[in-house]
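Entry:
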Amino acid sequence: MTQPTPILRDDHRPRLLDALDLAEAGVPVLPLRAGKLPFGNCPSCAGNACGGRPNMKTPGACQCPRPCHGWAAATTNPAVLQSPAWAEAWRQAHAVAYHPGGAGLTVVDLDNADAVAWARQALPATRTVPTTRGEHWIYQGTMQSTNAVRPGIDIKSTMSYARWLGPGTGTMAALPEAVRALIVKEPATVRPAPRAVTVSAPVGDGECRHRTPSYLERGIAMAEQRITEARSAVHATVYRTFLAVLSAHGRCGCLTDTHIGRLFTAAQSKGESPRHCTDAWTNALTRLGL
């Protein structure tokens, strides 16, 4: 891949110009709105209503006729970047993002000083880019994107996007086995304890359809199984499973924090962070009007 043209960040420079420079260097890009979130480029995705979770078979968790947001929207086509459909997005954009996997890259996102210190001891040196709280270490090569591979560390490559923060410093190294090994999980011999639940169960007053306690228990168990057996599109699977659980059990007040904790634990066992779990749960509540 051609190395991206160095861009010195100028807050007065239109972000579209940064995007066009990156696209010319072969780096697929897209605009980000406030909160480092992608824009929805179709009416049904306004306000991230569909959950914003692209998947492998149909990029975009919504039912759009084409990829419309997230990593799937990243492009190197200048005609698309400058099209009327994207004009307002670029005017509102707070940042430029890129699809590392589409550029043949992997980003090790180190979110704090402890994570950076660990990387300096455990990983080969490569190009680094400072972030607000840590660093991005960029390697040549692609792999599966996974969140929370270690405390404060995410892997962003295929089916993911990273914020463009400048060209960085240092010589880019080939993706090492030490990074690939981070997503390999040892078989669990005991069920992991649920992390602290940061959301509450909805309080409903609808008619309870759970004729026996086993009805609810079976539903939660099936939801856990659906998440843990996911082989791809984990983001989308978690969101849709949360949506299904809330649709069936969210209006009668039967769900408890223990039930939610079980769902969050299943999601985290697949690499989802507590923040992503909370976002997916909140999006599902909003979708159902709970």
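The first helix runs from residue 15 to 24.
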